[in-house]
Amino acid sequence: MGTPATALSHRTDNKMYRIQSPQTPVVRPPKHNEYGLDNFPQGTNAVVAVISYTGYDMDDAMILNKNSHERGFGYGTIYKTKKYDLQEEAVKVRSMRTVKKLYGFAPGGYVKAAQRVKLDEDGLPMIGALVQYGDNVAAYHEVEWDPASNELRNKDGITHFQKYKDNEDAHIEEVRLIGAEEGNTPNTIISIKYRIPRSPVIGDKFSSRHGQKGVCSQKWPTKDMPFSESGIVPDVIINPHAFPSRMTIGMFVESLAGKAGALHGFAQDSTPWKFEDKKGNTAVEFFGNQLQAAGYNYYGNEPMYSGITGTELAADIYIGVVYYQRLRHMVNDKFQVRTTGPINSMTGQPVKGRSKGGGIRVGEMERDSLIAHGTSFLLRDRLMNCSDYTKAWICRTCGSFLSTQPTVGAYDSKSRQAGTGIVRCRKCSTRAQSWTPKSEMWEDGQGQKWVAGDNVTVVAVPGVLKYLDVELAAMGISMTYDVGEA
Ligand SMILES: [Zn+2]
Fold first, then answer.
1. Residue 483 Cα, ligand 1 centroid: separation in angstroms?
2. pTM over 0.85
3. pLDDT band at residue 319, thresholds of 50, 70 and 90?
4. Are strands 213-220 and 61-65 parallel, antiparallel or unpaired?
5. Which of 38, 60, 316, 444 is catalytic?
6. Span from the CA of 399 to the centroid of ligand 1 (angstroms)
7. 253 near 217, Cβ under 8 Å?
8. Residues lining ligand 1 (ion), CB within 5 A?
9. Which CATH number fits domain 389-474: 3.30.70.100, 3.20.20.70, 3.40.50.150, 3.90.1800.10?
10. Which of 190, 254, 351, 427 is 20 to 30 A from 368, comparing alpha carbons?
11. DSSP 343
12. pLDDT digit string, tens, across residues 132-158
Protein backbone atom coordinates (compact mmCIF):
# COMPACT_ATOMS: atom_id res chain seq x y z
CA MET A 1 0.00 0.00 0.00
CA GLY A 2 1.25 3.47 -0.75
CA THR A 3 0.23 6.67 -2.41
CA PRO A 4 -0.82 5.48 -5.87
CA ALA A 5 -1.70 8.86 -7.35
CA THR A 6 -1.82 12.55 -6.55
CA ALA A 7 -5.34 13.51 -7.64
CA LEU A 8 -7.08 10.82 -5.58
CA SER A 9 -10.35 12.73 -5.39
CA HIS A 10 -10.59 12.81 -9.19
CA ARG A 11 -10.03 9.12 -9.69
CA THR A 12 -12.55 6.31 -10.00
CA ASP A 13 -10.35 3.20 -9.96
CA ASN A 14 -12.19 -0.06 -9.33
CA LYS A 15 -9.88 -0.69 -6.41
CA MET A 16 -7.12 1.39 -4.90
CA TYR A 17 -4.93 0.79 -1.86
CA ARG A 18 -3.71 3.77 0.08
CA ILE A 19 -1.60 4.28 3.19
CA GLN A 20 -2.83 7.10 5.37
CA SER A 21 0.10 8.42 7.40
CA PRO A 22 3.23 7.74 5.39
CA GLN A 23 6.67 9.27 5.85
CA THR A 24 9.63 9.96 3.62
CA PRO A 25 12.37 7.40 4.22
CA VAL A 26 15.43 8.44 6.23
CA VAL A 27 17.58 6.09 4.15
CA ARG A 28 17.22 6.66 0.41
CA PRO A 29 19.12 6.79 -2.86
CA PRO A 30 19.87 10.15 -4.55
CA LYS A 31 17.32 9.37 -7.27
CA HIS A 32 14.58 9.53 -4.63
CA ASN A 33 14.39 13.30 -4.94
CA GLU A 34 15.05 13.34 -8.66
CA TYR A 35 12.02 11.14 -9.23
CA GLY A 36 9.95 13.19 -6.79
CA LEU A 37 9.14 10.12 -4.73
CA ASP A 38 8.20 12.27 -1.75
CA ASN A 39 4.98 12.96 -3.63
CA PHE A 40 4.24 9.24 -3.39
CA PRO A 41 5.36 8.10 0.07
CA GLN A 42 4.86 4.42 0.76
CA GLY A 43 5.96 3.55 4.26
CA THR A 44 6.98 4.57 7.75
CA ASN A 45 10.35 4.85 9.48
CA ALA A 46 9.90 2.26 12.18
CA VAL A 47 12.12 1.60 15.18
CA VAL A 48 12.92 -2.07 14.73
CA ALA A 49 14.39 -4.35 17.37
CA VAL A 50 15.83 -7.68 16.28
CA ILE A 51 15.00 -9.96 19.17
CA SER A 52 13.06 -13.06 19.97
CA TYR A 53 10.49 -11.69 22.39
CA THR A 54 7.48 -13.52 23.88
CA GLY A 55 7.59 -16.04 21.05
CA TYR A 56 5.01 -14.13 19.01
CA ASP A 57 7.75 -13.13 16.54
CA MET A 58 8.64 -16.71 15.68
CA ASP A 59 9.33 -17.62 12.06
CA ASP A 60 8.30 -14.71 9.86
CA ALA A 61 5.83 -13.23 12.29
CA MET A 62 6.36 -9.78 13.71
CA ILE A 63 5.18 -7.95 16.80
CA LEU A 64 3.70 -4.49 16.43
CA ASN A 65 3.68 -1.86 19.11
CA LYS A 66 -0.03 -1.37 19.79
CA ASN A 67 0.45 2.28 20.67
CA SER A 68 2.33 2.94 17.43
CA HIS A 69 -0.60 1.39 15.63
CA GLU A 70 -2.99 3.62 17.55
CA ARG A 71 -0.94 6.65 16.52
CA GLY A 72 -1.47 5.70 12.88
CA PHE A 73 1.35 3.30 12.03
CA GLY A 74 0.45 1.42 8.86
CA TYR A 75 -3.14 2.71 8.71
CA GLY A 76 -4.49 1.90 5.27
CA THR A 77 -7.59 2.52 3.19
CA ILE A 78 -9.13 0.78 0.22
CA TYR A 79 -11.18 2.77 -2.27
CA LYS A 80 -13.67 0.90 -4.40
CA THR A 81 -15.78 2.47 -7.12
CA LYS A 82 -19.02 0.90 -8.26
CA LYS A 83 -21.18 1.98 -11.19
CA TYR A 84 -24.96 1.74 -10.97
CA ASP A 85 -26.82 1.85 -14.27
CA LEU A 86 -30.60 2.01 -14.43
CA GLN A 87 -30.69 1.33 -18.18
CA GLU A 88 -30.44 -2.44 -18.19
CA GLU A 89 -30.89 -3.52 -21.79
CA ALA A 90 -28.78 -2.00 -24.53
CA VAL A 91 -30.91 0.46 -26.45
CA LYS A 92 -29.70 1.57 -29.87
CA VAL A 93 -31.00 5.08 -29.80
CA ARG A 94 -31.65 6.63 -26.44
CA SER A 95 -34.54 8.96 -26.26
CA MET A 96 -37.02 10.05 -23.62
CA ARG A 97 -39.13 7.04 -24.66
CA THR A 98 -36.39 4.57 -23.68
CA VAL A 99 -35.99 6.01 -20.20
CA LYS A 100 -37.80 3.62 -17.86
CA LYS A 101 -36.25 4.46 -14.50
CA LEU A 102 -35.00 7.58 -12.79
CA TYR A 103 -32.99 8.17 -9.65
CA GLY A 104 -34.75 9.71 -6.69
CA PHE A 105 -37.77 8.85 -4.57
CA ALA A 106 -41.02 8.32 -6.40
CA PRO A 107 -42.85 11.67 -6.28
CA GLY A 108 -45.75 11.53 -3.85
CA GLY A 109 -44.88 7.97 -2.88
CA TYR A 110 -44.53 6.57 0.58
CA VAL A 111 -41.06 5.48 1.84
CA LYS A 112 -40.33 4.02 5.26
CA ALA A 113 -37.99 6.14 7.36
CA ALA A 114 -35.71 3.15 7.94
CA GLN A 115 -35.19 2.81 4.20
CA ARG A 116 -33.90 6.32 3.72
CA VAL A 117 -31.63 6.86 6.73
CA LYS A 118 -28.51 6.74 4.57
CA LEU A 119 -30.03 8.61 1.66
CA ASP A 120 -30.30 12.31 1.07
CA GLU A 121 -33.35 14.16 -0.33
CA ASP A 122 -32.21 13.41 -3.90
CA GLY A 123 -32.28 9.67 -3.23
CA LEU A 124 -28.50 9.41 -3.44
CA PRO A 125 -26.35 8.32 -0.49
CA MET A 126 -25.01 10.84 2.01
CA ILE A 127 -21.28 11.45 1.89
CA GLY A 128 -19.55 9.80 4.83
CA ALA A 129 -22.45 7.46 5.63
CA LEU A 130 -21.46 4.01 6.85
CA VAL A 131 -23.04 1.32 4.69
CA GLN A 132 -23.30 -2.36 5.47
CA TYR A 133 -24.37 -5.36 3.44
CA GLY A 134 -27.94 -4.88 2.19
CA ASP A 135 -28.14 -1.16 2.92
CA ASN A 136 -29.83 1.12 0.42
CA VAL A 137 -27.35 3.26 -1.48
CA ALA A 138 -29.65 4.83 -4.05
CA ALA A 139 -33.38 5.25 -4.60
CA TYR A 140 -35.06 5.05 -8.00
CA HIS A 141 -38.54 4.88 -9.44
CA GLU A 142 -40.08 3.72 -12.68
CA VAL A 143 -41.28 6.26 -15.23
CA GLU A 144 -43.10 6.39 -18.52
CA TRP A 145 -43.01 8.97 -21.26
CA ASP A 146 -46.21 10.94 -21.40
CA PRO A 147 -46.51 12.62 -24.84
CA ALA A 148 -49.46 14.74 -23.76
CA SER A 149 -47.62 16.63 -21.05
CA ASN A 150 -44.20 16.11 -22.67
CA GLU A 151 -42.62 14.70 -19.53
CA LEU A 152 -41.61 11.50 -17.73
CA ARG A 153 -44.32 10.41 -15.36
CA ASN A 154 -44.29 8.01 -12.44
CA LYS A 155 -47.56 6.17 -12.03
CA ASP A 156 -47.21 3.67 -9.18
CA GLY A 157 -45.54 5.89 -6.55
CA ILE A 158 -43.28 2.99 -5.56
CA THR A 159 -39.64 3.67 -4.73
CA HIS A 160 -37.05 0.96 -5.44
CA PHE A 161 -33.52 0.82 -4.06
CA GLN A 162 -30.01 -0.07 -5.20
CA LYS A 163 -28.28 -2.08 -2.49
CA TYR A 164 -24.74 -2.29 -1.16
CA LYS A 165 -23.73 -5.88 -1.85
CA ASP A 166 -20.28 -6.24 -0.28
CA ASN A 167 -19.83 -7.99 3.03
CA GLU A 168 -17.35 -5.44 4.30
CA ASP A 169 -18.58 -2.20 5.88
CA ALA A 170 -17.68 0.92 3.92
CA HIS A 171 -18.16 4.65 3.94
CA ILE A 172 -19.56 6.66 1.06
CA GLU A 173 -16.62 8.69 -0.21
CA GLU A 174 -17.94 10.28 -3.39
CA VAL A 175 -21.06 10.15 -5.57
CA ARG A 176 -20.86 10.97 -9.25
CA LEU A 177 -23.72 11.66 -11.65
CA ILE A 178 -22.50 10.33 -14.94
CA GLY A 179 -25.29 11.60 -17.17
CA ALA A 180 -26.56 10.38 -20.51
CA GLU A 181 -24.41 9.54 -23.48
CA GLU A 182 -26.19 11.79 -25.97
CA GLY A 183 -27.15 14.47 -23.50
CA ASN A 184 -30.78 14.38 -24.53
CA THR A 185 -32.04 12.18 -21.69
CA PRO A 186 -31.94 12.55 -17.91
CA ASN A 187 -29.17 10.93 -15.87
CA THR A 188 -29.61 7.22 -15.27
CA ILE A 189 -26.04 6.27 -14.30
CA ILE A 190 -24.29 7.05 -11.04
CA SER A 191 -20.92 6.00 -9.70
CA ILE A 192 -20.26 5.63 -5.99
CA LYS A 193 -16.78 5.57 -4.49
CA TYR A 194 -16.58 3.61 -1.25
CA ARG A 195 -13.90 3.96 1.37
CA ILE A 196 -13.03 0.88 3.40
CA PRO A 197 -10.87 1.55 6.46
CA ARG A 198 -8.14 -1.01 7.01
CA SER A 199 -6.46 -0.39 10.30
CA PRO A 200 -3.65 -2.94 10.83
CA VAL A 201 -4.88 -6.13 12.48
CA ILE A 202 -3.26 -9.41 13.45
CA GLY A 203 -2.65 -11.30 10.23
CA ASP A 204 -1.81 -8.30 8.08
CA LYS A 205 1.44 -8.27 6.15
CA PHE A 206 4.32 -5.82 6.43
CA SER A 207 7.75 -5.66 4.89
CA SER A 208 10.99 -3.74 4.94
CA ARG A 209 12.46 -2.76 1.57
CA HIS A 210 14.74 -5.81 1.68
CA GLY A 211 12.02 -8.36 1.09
CA GLN A 212 11.91 -9.20 4.79
CA LYS A 213 8.17 -9.66 4.78
CA GLY A 214 6.28 -10.79 7.80
CA VAL A 215 2.81 -11.10 9.26
CA CYS A 216 1.74 -9.22 12.36
CA SER A 217 1.07 -11.84 15.01
CA GLN A 218 0.50 -9.69 18.06
CA LYS A 219 0.02 -6.07 19.02
CA TRP A 220 1.71 -5.58 22.39
CA PRO A 221 0.93 -2.44 24.39
CA THR A 222 3.99 -0.21 24.84
CA LYS A 223 4.26 -1.16 28.51
CA ASP A 224 4.87 -4.79 27.54
CA MET A 225 7.46 -4.02 24.86
CA PRO A 226 11.20 -4.00 25.63
CA PHE A 227 12.75 -0.53 26.06
CA SER A 228 16.23 0.88 25.78
CA GLU A 229 18.16 2.92 28.37
CA SER A 230 16.96 6.15 26.78
CA GLY A 231 13.38 4.90 26.89
CA ILE A 232 13.02 4.09 23.21
CA VAL A 233 10.40 1.41 22.56
CA PRO A 234 10.43 -0.38 19.19
CA ASP A 235 7.50 -0.06 16.78
CA VAL A 236 8.28 -3.45 15.32
CA ILE A 237 9.96 -6.55 16.70
CA ILE A 238 11.32 -9.14 14.30
CA ASN A 239 13.05 -12.41 14.96
CA PRO A 240 16.85 -12.73 14.50
CA HIS A 241 16.35 -16.05 12.69
CA ALA A 242 15.01 -14.11 9.69
CA PHE A 243 18.59 -13.17 8.71
CA PRO A 244 21.14 -16.01 8.53
CA SER A 245 19.56 -17.93 5.64
CA ARG A 246 18.34 -14.89 3.70
CA MET A 247 21.50 -12.85 4.19
CA THR A 248 19.75 -9.49 3.89
CA ILE A 249 22.78 -7.59 5.19
CA GLY A 250 21.34 -4.47 3.61
CA MET A 251 18.63 -4.39 6.24
CA PHE A 252 21.22 -4.31 9.03
CA VAL A 253 22.99 -1.46 7.26
CA GLU A 254 19.70 0.39 6.76
CA SER A 255 18.96 -0.06 10.44
CA LEU A 256 22.32 1.51 11.34
CA ALA A 257 21.98 4.28 8.77
CA GLY A 258 18.40 5.03 9.72
CA LYS A 259 19.30 5.25 13.39
CA ALA A 260 22.28 7.53 12.73
CA GLY A 261 20.23 9.65 10.33
CA ALA A 262 17.43 10.06 12.85
CA LEU A 263 19.90 10.99 15.59
CA HIS A 264 21.71 13.58 13.50
CA GLY A 265 18.68 14.79 11.66
CA PHE A 266 19.52 14.14 8.06
CA ALA A 267 18.59 11.81 5.23
CA GLN A 268 21.13 9.07 4.48
CA ASP A 269 22.39 8.04 1.08
CA SER A 270 21.72 4.36 0.60
CA THR A 271 24.06 3.90 -2.38
CA PRO A 272 26.42 1.03 -1.57
CA TRP A 273 30.26 1.04 -1.81
CA LYS A 274 30.80 4.74 -1.52
CA PHE A 275 31.38 5.38 2.16
CA GLU A 276 34.66 6.87 3.23
CA ASP A 277 35.75 8.97 6.15
CA LYS A 278 38.90 9.37 8.22
CA LYS A 279 38.36 6.21 10.19
CA GLY A 280 37.22 3.74 7.56
CA ASN A 281 35.69 2.95 4.21
CA THR A 282 32.84 0.51 4.79
CA ALA A 283 29.20 1.29 5.39
CA VAL A 284 29.35 -0.27 8.84
CA GLU A 285 32.34 1.87 9.81
CA PHE A 286 30.78 4.98 8.29
CA PHE A 287 27.48 4.67 10.11
CA GLY A 288 29.12 3.19 13.20
CA ASN A 289 31.17 6.35 13.56
CA GLN A 290 28.03 8.47 13.14
CA LEU A 291 26.32 6.48 15.87
CA GLN A 292 29.33 6.84 18.15
CA ALA A 293 29.37 10.59 17.53
CA ALA A 294 25.76 10.69 18.74
CA GLY A 295 26.73 8.84 21.89
CA TYR A 296 25.44 5.44 20.84
CA ASN A 297 27.03 2.03 20.52
CA TYR A 298 29.20 1.75 17.41
CA TYR A 299 27.53 -1.51 16.29
CA GLY A 300 23.96 -0.44 16.86
CA ASN A 301 23.44 -2.75 19.83
CA GLU A 302 21.89 -1.43 23.00
CA PRO A 303 21.14 -2.84 26.40
CA MET A 304 17.39 -3.31 26.71
CA TYR A 305 14.96 -4.06 29.47
CA SER A 306 12.05 -6.45 29.45
CA GLY A 307 8.74 -4.62 29.41
CA ILE A 308 7.21 -7.45 31.41
CA THR A 309 9.71 -8.04 34.22
CA GLY A 310 11.61 -4.73 33.99
CA THR A 311 14.94 -6.53 34.22
CA GLU A 312 17.80 -6.01 31.80
CA LEU A 313 17.94 -8.54 28.99
CA ALA A 314 20.99 -10.82 29.01
CA ALA A 315 22.16 -9.74 25.55
CA ASP A 316 22.41 -6.34 23.94
CA ILE A 317 19.74 -5.90 21.27
CA TYR A 318 20.28 -4.72 17.72
CA ILE A 319 17.89 -1.82 17.35
CA GLY A 320 17.62 0.81 14.64
CA VAL A 321 15.34 2.59 12.20
CA VAL A 322 14.07 0.72 9.13
CA TYR A 323 11.56 1.95 6.56
CA TYR A 324 8.58 -0.40 6.78
CA GLN A 325 5.85 -0.87 4.18
CA ARG A 326 2.33 -2.21 4.53
CA LEU A 327 1.59 -4.88 1.94
CA ARG A 328 -1.84 -5.33 0.38
CA HIS A 329 -2.31 -8.92 1.55
CA MET A 330 -4.70 -8.66 4.48
CA VAL A 331 -6.52 -11.31 6.51
CA ASN A 332 -9.77 -9.53 5.88
CA ASP A 333 -9.52 -10.53 2.22
CA LYS A 334 -8.26 -14.03 2.92
CA PHE A 335 -9.86 -15.61 5.97
CA GLN A 336 -12.03 -18.66 5.38
CA VAL A 337 -14.70 -20.14 7.59
CA ARG A 338 -17.17 -22.95 6.84
CA THR A 339 -19.36 -25.24 8.83
CA THR A 340 -21.94 -26.53 6.39
CA GLY A 341 -22.55 -24.84 3.10
CA PRO A 342 -22.80 -25.24 -0.66
CA ILE A 343 -21.85 -28.59 -2.18
CA ASN A 344 -20.90 -29.73 -5.64
CA SER A 345 -23.97 -31.34 -7.16
CA MET A 346 -21.97 -33.94 -9.13
CA THR A 347 -19.74 -35.29 -6.38
CA GLY A 348 -21.65 -34.24 -3.28
CA GLN A 349 -18.44 -32.83 -1.84
CA PRO A 350 -18.13 -29.31 -0.44
CA VAL A 351 -17.21 -26.73 -3.06
CA LYS A 352 -13.85 -24.97 -2.94
CA GLY A 353 -13.17 -21.29 -2.93
CA ARG A 354 -13.47 -18.54 -0.35
CA SER A 355 -15.88 -16.43 -2.36
CA LYS A 356 -18.31 -19.33 -2.77
CA GLY A 357 -18.37 -20.18 0.93
CA GLY A 358 -16.38 -23.34 0.29
CA GLY A 359 -14.00 -25.27 2.44
CA ILE A 360 -10.26 -25.76 2.59
CA ARG A 361 -9.22 -29.04 1.05
CA VAL A 362 -7.86 -31.88 3.14
CA GLY A 363 -5.38 -32.93 0.50
CA GLU A 364 -3.13 -35.88 -0.04
CA MET A 365 -0.44 -34.62 2.34
CA GLU A 366 -2.94 -33.92 5.11
CA ARG A 367 -4.28 -37.41 4.56
CA ASP A 368 -0.74 -38.84 4.85
CA SER A 369 -0.29 -36.93 8.07
CA LEU A 370 -3.48 -38.31 9.59
CA ILE A 371 -2.51 -41.83 8.54
CA ALA A 372 0.91 -41.38 10.14
CA HIS A 373 -0.76 -40.30 13.35
CA GLY A 374 -2.96 -43.38 13.32
CA THR A 375 -6.06 -41.23 13.61
CA SER A 376 -8.18 -43.17 11.19
CA PHE A 377 -11.48 -42.18 12.75
CA LEU A 378 -10.61 -38.52 12.27
CA LEU A 379 -9.64 -39.37 8.70
CA ARG A 380 -13.01 -40.95 8.06
CA ASP A 381 -14.72 -37.99 9.66
CA ARG A 382 -12.95 -35.58 7.28
CA LEU A 383 -13.13 -37.68 4.13
CA MET A 384 -16.60 -39.19 4.58
CA ASN A 385 -18.88 -37.85 7.27
CA CYS A 386 -18.02 -34.17 6.81
CA SER A 387 -17.76 -34.49 3.05
CA ASP A 388 -19.87 -36.55 0.64
CA TYR A 389 -21.40 -39.10 3.00
CA THR A 390 -24.15 -41.03 1.23
CA LYS A 391 -26.07 -44.24 1.72
CA ALA A 392 -26.32 -46.52 -1.28
CA TRP A 393 -27.96 -49.82 -2.14
CA ILE A 394 -25.55 -52.57 -3.15
CA CYS A 395 -26.00 -56.22 -4.14
CA ARG A 396 -24.11 -58.64 -1.91
CA THR A 397 -24.17 -61.39 -4.54
CA CYS A 398 -22.74 -59.55 -7.53
CA GLY A 399 -21.18 -56.67 -5.59
CA SER A 400 -22.58 -53.94 -7.78
CA PHE A 401 -24.08 -50.55 -7.00
CA LEU A 402 -25.48 -50.12 -10.46
CA SER A 403 -27.57 -53.25 -10.79
CA THR A 404 -29.84 -52.41 -7.86
CA GLN A 405 -33.14 -50.75 -8.51
CA PRO A 406 -36.32 -49.94 -6.64
CA THR A 407 -39.22 -52.19 -7.48
CA VAL A 408 -42.58 -51.05 -8.68
CA GLY A 409 -45.49 -52.67 -6.89
CA ALA A 410 -48.45 -53.82 -8.90
CA TYR A 411 -51.35 -51.47 -8.64
CA ASP A 412 -53.36 -52.38 -5.58
CA SER A 413 -56.96 -51.35 -5.91
CA LYS A 414 -57.56 -51.68 -2.17
CA SER A 415 -54.74 -49.50 -0.79
CA ARG A 416 -54.32 -47.55 -4.04
CA GLN A 417 -50.58 -47.57 -3.52
CA ALA A 418 -47.97 -48.02 -6.18
CA GLY A 419 -44.38 -48.82 -5.30
CA THR A 420 -43.32 -50.70 -2.22
CA GLY A 421 -39.92 -49.11 -1.45
CA ILE A 422 -38.27 -52.48 -1.92
CA VAL A 423 -34.94 -52.66 -3.77
CA ARG A 424 -33.81 -55.68 -5.77
CA CYS A 425 -30.80 -56.58 -7.88
CA ARG A 426 -31.72 -56.73 -11.53
CA LYS A 427 -28.54 -58.62 -12.48
CA CYS A 428 -29.06 -61.42 -9.95
CA SER A 429 -32.69 -61.99 -10.81
CA THR A 430 -34.42 -64.01 -13.50
CA ARG A 431 -37.64 -63.48 -15.42
CA ALA A 432 -40.68 -64.68 -13.56
CA GLN A 433 -42.54 -67.62 -15.05
CA SER A 434 -46.21 -68.28 -15.08
CA TRP A 435 -45.88 -70.68 -12.14
CA THR A 436 -43.88 -68.22 -9.98
CA PRO A 437 -45.80 -67.43 -6.79
CA LYS A 438 -47.00 -63.85 -6.73
CA SER A 439 -45.36 -63.26 -3.34
CA GLU A 440 -41.87 -63.93 -4.81
CA MET A 441 -42.35 -61.74 -7.82
CA TRP A 442 -41.24 -58.17 -8.27
CA GLU A 443 -41.83 -55.73 -11.04
CA ASP A 444 -39.49 -53.23 -12.69
CA GLY A 445 -40.56 -49.91 -14.18
CA GLN A 446 -41.23 -51.47 -17.60
CA GLY A 447 -43.97 -53.79 -16.40
CA GLN A 448 -41.69 -56.86 -16.51
CA LYS A 449 -41.82 -59.36 -13.66
CA TRP A 450 -38.76 -60.91 -11.98
CA VAL A 451 -37.78 -63.32 -9.21
CA ALA A 452 -34.85 -63.32 -6.71
CA GLY A 453 -32.10 -60.68 -6.53
CA ASP A 454 -33.09 -59.91 -2.97
CA ASN A 455 -29.61 -60.18 -1.44
CA VAL A 456 -29.23 -56.41 -1.29
CA THR A 457 -28.18 -54.09 1.52
CA VAL A 458 -27.38 -50.47 2.26
CA VAL A 459 -23.80 -49.29 2.75
CA ALA A 460 -22.37 -45.87 3.60
CA VAL A 461 -19.94 -44.71 0.93
CA PRO A 462 -18.47 -41.44 -0.31
CA GLY A 463 -20.60 -39.86 -3.03
CA VAL A 464 -17.72 -39.67 -5.49
CA LEU A 465 -17.25 -43.42 -5.31
CA LYS A 466 -20.64 -43.91 -6.92
CA TYR A 467 -19.73 -41.28 -9.49
CA LEU A 468 -16.50 -43.13 -10.26
CA ASP A 469 -18.48 -46.34 -10.65
CA VAL A 470 -20.75 -44.69 -13.21
CA GLU A 471 -17.87 -43.17 -15.16
CA LEU A 472 -16.04 -46.49 -15.31
CA ALA A 473 -19.23 -48.26 -16.38
CA ALA A 474 -19.43 -45.82 -19.28
CA MET A 475 -16.00 -47.09 -20.34
CA GLY A 476 -17.05 -50.71 -20.07
CA ILE A 477 -15.36 -51.36 -16.72
CA SER A 478 -17.47 -52.80 -13.96
CA MET A 479 -16.53 -52.39 -10.33
CA THR A 480 -17.49 -55.04 -7.80
CA TYR A 481 -17.36 -54.77 -4.05
CA ASP A 482 -17.00 -57.52 -1.49
CA VAL A 483 -19.59 -56.48 1.06
CA GLY A 484 -19.57 -59.75 3.02
CA GLU A 485 -22.49 -61.79 4.27
CA ALA A 486 -25.25 -60.37 6.38
ZN1 LIG B 1 -26.57 -58.64 -7.88
1. 12
2. no
3. very high
4. parallel
5. 60
6. 6
7. no
8. 395, 397-398, 425, 427-428
9. 3.90.1800.10
10. 351
11. B
12. 999 999 999 999 988 888 888 898 999
